[in-house]
Write a structure and sequence with these properties.
This is IPT/TIG domain-containing protein. There is one protein chain. The chain is an alpha+beta fold. The protein has 5 domains: about 120 residues, Immunoglobulin-like; about 230 residues, Neutral Protease, domain 2, CATH 1.10.390; about 130 residues, Sandwich (Jelly Rolls), CATH 2.60.120.380; about 80 residues, Immunoglobulins (Immunoglobulin-like); about 110 residues, Immunoglobulin-like (Sandwich), CATH 2.60.40. Strands 3, 4, 6, 9 and 10 form a 5-stranded antiparallel beta sheet that branches. It has a 5-stranded mixed beta sheet with strand order 7-8-14-16-15, with helices on one face. The chain has a 5-stranded mixed beta sheet with strand order 19-21-26-23-24, with no helix packed on it. Strand 1 and strand 2 form a beta hairpin.
């Protein structure tokens, strides 16, 4: 090889080495490591905020390395669950940088966990300026600690809120949930704590109330991964007659908060706690708390399907593990959540499979019974005895009672007449084994009764509880020996219980009593029943009427007439002059309140009351009013119907009634002809009809409401020409007025 060729190769090699060095310099990349922490406020179930501040790691948060001068992003990454980060940093040589962390996590699918203020701005915290000798070399950024945020009357921590959101997502993804389909937003500080679909709004003083925060995030998880019918609104502990959909929604959200904390490995995770977040400490900061394991301090007042506290206590027992520290001596788990409740599924997994399964998601009105059904039908639970015991401990009774099957007369259970109540029974029956689902039960009881007995049948809450402790809403029906219905009731008892009062028995034999759920939204529940004889009756008698003379028409709705007597409260029909009275109601056994019918004739008429044991009659006198009467819609002054409204006039038979209308309520006088209270003068008065009284003096005109303008008040009055005298001036009726709203 010639010396000149060697020189060329050396030159080429040197140039290549120089280019490689330049390339390596341009692509030089170091890394920044550190830990992101936030200042948290320590709390306990009984003591509230303790006054101790601790530093906790911020998990899964976005961290950026910024050029301190230009603000350019030199590297970006996120923390791990311990708050640690190692981020690749572009560049080389000395540089002043800032580490900035954001209340934002992008680790869960297309959606983010994002903590922001009400304007939508994400919170951040920054380090002091760090002077780095060479960006190409790894450097330790140290610990970045996000401080508390102090506002007027409150203290909070955006990175504490992010911590709760991330822990919630870690829990649900550990159960097989997919990534977030939408952002999980946490907005703070707000005027109150509540949730709107994917947005958890956190009150200004709840910024460190982890259980409140997780509860509201639980609502968001419910909305994003399942289906909620929670109507929202005011609610609280010890309320056992809530809307069942609200009880499930609120109870599940509180349960979720405890489940997240248990998954995180925290001691004593299972309770709800809301403290005063003004920065003070001590037991006085506790505003509301309740423990899931034993219901303290409200256990004695908690129970039933429509009680959010009973819901979260029952659900907690599904996931609460035997080794979980519940903060009370002698931890009394009824069910170890670590065992398989379904093949291959522990308590958390089985609950989530049910919660996200078709029984829950497709329910038209979601309450705890659908979640119960889902445990078996969707999650495949095979531990019915243990699960039903866990629910029954909180008076959510999902088992058949001792009398099943008793859904027909042939299967009916004999019921002894008397003051004693039955044992606690359930409106729960199922043809399946295990008995799930079990709604729509009908319980039939048989009683032997004698003609003339007055019988009372009623249900009550188990043990005569003054509070509901069940969402049972009973309907009672009494059937005669031949199968015909005697009477039915769905109200009258305490709370939502039914009571049949003063049922008069008209034939001797075996009667059947049916107990069923009145509301399809409350298809199960618990109750007790009794039937007793409250006396005996004979044929009815009538001793008097509150009105012995009545008019054919009144200016407003006709008054109720009270019929007094004996044994008439069991009336099956009432007639006046042979015409049926459509509406009447009993006042005990000794009275009836009747609504007057449309009369067909004047003069004395027979009023007949018929009961199962006979009939009684008296006379009521029907007269034309002495002064003409005008009735428009029984006195209703706001007209909304597009159908005509009747203007009725009552005078003597054959009298002529002139119907006038005006926009003025001032009087009109034409001496010797008419004196009216409307019109404001003859020019403001319009005659709309001339009517002739029928055989009892009634006449009617249909006001064409559809043609009238809206929001205009019309005044009406009738002037009557007596047919027997033809004397003027016209006799004026009362006035009436009305306005078409729309």
């Amino acid at each position: 090889m010639s010396r000149s060729m060697l020189s060329v190769l050396v030159a080429v090699a040197c140039a290549a080495a120089s280019n490689l060095a330049a390339s390596n310099h341009a692509a030089a990349q170091g890394s920044a490591s550190g830990q992101l922490l936030y200042v948290d406020r320590e709390f306990t179930f009984s003591g509230g905020f303790t006054g101790v501040d601790v530093e906790r790691p911020v998990p899964k948060a976005i961290v950026r390395i910024l050029d301190a001068g230009s603000g350019a992003v030199l590297g970006s990454g996120s923390t791990d669950l311990s708050g640690n980060f190692t981020i690749a940093v572009a560049g080389s040589g000395p540089r002043d940088v800032i580490v900035r962390a954001f209340s934002l996590s992008t680790n869960y699918g297309v959606g983010r966990v994002q903590v922001e203020d009400l304007s939508g701005a994400v919170y951040s915290t920054s380090s002091p300026i760090l002077s780095i000798p060479d960006l190409a070399a790894p450097f330790d950024a140290g610990q970045l600690v996000a401080p508390k945020v102090i506002g007027p009357g409150y203290v909070g921590g955006p990175f504490n809120l992010l911590d709760q959101g991330v822990r919630a997502m870690e829990y649900v993804t550990s159960l097989g949930a997919g990534g977030l389909p939408l952002n999980l937003l946490v907005q703070w500080p707000d005027s109150g704590s509540f949730a709107t679909f994917n947005n958890a709004h956190i009150s200004d003083d709840d910024g460190f109330d982890d259980l409140v925060v997780l509860h509201e995030i639980g609502h968001v998880i419910h909305n994003l991964y399942s289906s909620s019918d929670n109507p929202g609104g005011s609610h609280g502990f010890t309320q056992s007659d809530q809307d069942p959909a609200l009880s499930l929604g609120e109870g599940w959200a509180s349960f979720f908060a405890g489940a997240v904390r248990q998954h995180q490995g925290l001691a004593n995770p299972g309770f709800y706690l809301d403290c005063d977040g003004d920065g003070s400490s001590g037991p006085g900061t506790v505003q509301l708390h309740m423990r899931f394991e034993d219901g303290a301090p409200y256990a004695a007042f908690t129970g039933g399907e429509a009680d959010e506290g009973a819901v979260f206590c029952a659900l907690w027992d599904l996931v609460d593990r035997a080794d979980t520290d519940d903060g009370i001596p002698g931890d009394d788990d009824l069910l170890d959540g670590s065992i398989d409740l379904a093949p291959g599924l522990d308590g958390d997994q089985a609950q989530w499979a049910a919660f996200t399964g078709p029984e829950v998601v497709d329910s038209p009105y979601l309450h705890v019974i659908e979640l119960w059904d889902g445990l078996f039908l969707d999650a495949g639970a095979d531990r019915y005895p243990e699960l039903s015991a866990a629910f029954a401990a909180w008076k959510i009774r999902v088992e058949e009672d001792l009398f099943e099957p008793d859904g027909s007369t042939a299967q009916g259970t004999p019921l002894v007449l008397g003051d004693a109540w039955s044992p606690t029974l359930t409106l729960y029956a199922s043809p399946f084994d295990p008995p799930v689902p079990g709604g729509g039960d009908v319980d039939v009881f048989l009683v032997d009764l004698t003609a003339g007995q007055v019988v009372e049948v009623e249900t009550r809450y188990p043990g005569g509880a003054p509070d509901h402790e069940t969402y049972c809403d009973t309907r009672l029906s009494l059937f005669a020996p031949n199968g015909s219905i005697v009477t039915t009731a769905f109200t009258g008892g305490a709370g939502a219980n039914a009571k049949l009062s003063d049922a008069v028995i008209d034939q001797t034999g075996t009667y059947s009593i049916q107990v069923a759920a009145q509301s399809s939204f409350r298809p199960t529940g618990s109750y007790e029943i009794r039937a007793r004889v409250n006396g005996s009756v004979g044929p009815p008698t009538i001793s008097g009427l509150s009105l012995s003379t009545v008019q054919t028409l009144y200016s407003t709705a006709a008054p109720q007439v009270i019929v007094s007597g004996t044994n008439i409260g069991s009336a099956t029909s009432v007639t006046i002059g042979g015409a049926s009275v459509a509406s009447f109601s009993a006042i005990g056994l000794s009275g009836l309140s009747i609504t007057l019918p449309q009369f067909a004739q004047l003069g004395p008429q027979d009023l007949v009351v018929t009961t199962p044991l006979g009939a009684a009659s008296t006379t009521i006198n029907v007269v034309a009013p002495a002064i003409p009467v005008l009735n428009i819609a029984d006195g209703l002054q706001f007209w909304t119907s597009t159908s005509p409204i009747a203007a009725r006039v009552a005078a003597a038979p054959g009298d002529l009634a002139f119907l006038f209308v005006s926009l003025s309520s001032l009087p009109t006088s034409v001496p010797g002809v008419l004196d009216l209270d409307i019109g404001g003068g003859i020019a403001g008065l319009f005659q709309v009809a001339v009517l002739t009284g029928d055989s009892i003096g009634l006449a009617s005109y249909q006001i064409p409401i559809v043609l009238l303008p809206t929001q205009v008040t019309f005044h009406l009055q009738a002037g009557v020409l007596r047919i027997d005298t033809l004397a003027l001036p016209l006799e004026a009726s009362n006035t009436a007025k009305g306005k078409k709203l729309f």
